[in-house]
Amino acid sequence: MLHKLHLENVLFLDIETVPEFRNFSELDDEKKLLWEEKSRYQRKEDYTAEEFYERAGIWSEFGKIVCISVGFFSFRNDKRSFRLTSFKGEEEKLLRDFTALLEEYFFQPNHLLCAHNGKEFDFPYIARRILIHNMRLPSKLNLFGKKPWEVPHLDTLELWKFGDYKHYTSLKLLTHVLGIPSPKEDIDGSMVRTVYYEKGEIDRIVEYCERDVLAIAQVILRLRQEDLLNESEIISVE
């Protein structure tokens, strides 16, 4: 089935998230209690709720999206290209801009969204944050009442599992074992909060996010046993 997929119908994406507030002290009293309850299992006795708050970005109820990067293939006159662009900054605006992209260009039944671990993280996280901002869900994220085979999502982690649902492979490991060259990374996921709140360097986060989008597209090409993208085929669009 993967070989029959029309790549130009796929929107590849990745998100970067941080805690909703810079510090635990900025939460109101009720939200502090809710965070203590939500994080109790993960932090156990090793951390206080305040100490553990720097990891709050992975929960959509306590975090926010600071960047959504997307990429898509274009084929013209037998020439292949891959275009990258990003939505960054204030969350409500970036979600509105991303939603507009989906509703204008990726709304047809044959259009798919693709991410690494997207079904467990990126797609539900985006959908929840959209609803938290009281915005309408675009059709590609509105899964209410849909059967599993009707869900318009591809997940490179799921593809690599081959049905082994207990198996987890990071995108970094997957690109390595598949022989996909990766550029030197300026930051990694664990540093996004610090880069955002302490350094205010959103462009570094965008570059990191776009590298992951490119890596996801390269994984799909390798799984289809096609030539990887080269530098001349990759186009960054502001």
Give structural attributes:
238 residues, 6-stranded mixed sheet
Protein model, in words:
It is a single chain. This protein has 8 helices and 6 strands; from the N terminus they run βααββαβαβααααβ. It has 238 residues and is an alpha/beta fold. It has a 6-stranded mixed beta sheet, sandwiched between helices. Strand 4, helix 4 (122-132) and strand 5 (153-155) form a beta-alpha-beta unit. It is globular and about 60 Å long.
Low-confidence stretches: none
Overall geometry: globular
Question: Helical element count?
Answer: 8
What fraction of residues sit in β-strands? 15-25%
For the biggest β-sheet, the strand order reads: 5-4-1-2-3-6
Largest sheet: 6 strands, mixed
The average pLDDT score comes to 94
N-to-C terminal Cα separation, in Å? 33 Å
**SSE sequence, one letter per element:** EHHEEHEHEHHHHE
Could you estimate the helical fraction of the residues in percent? 25-40%
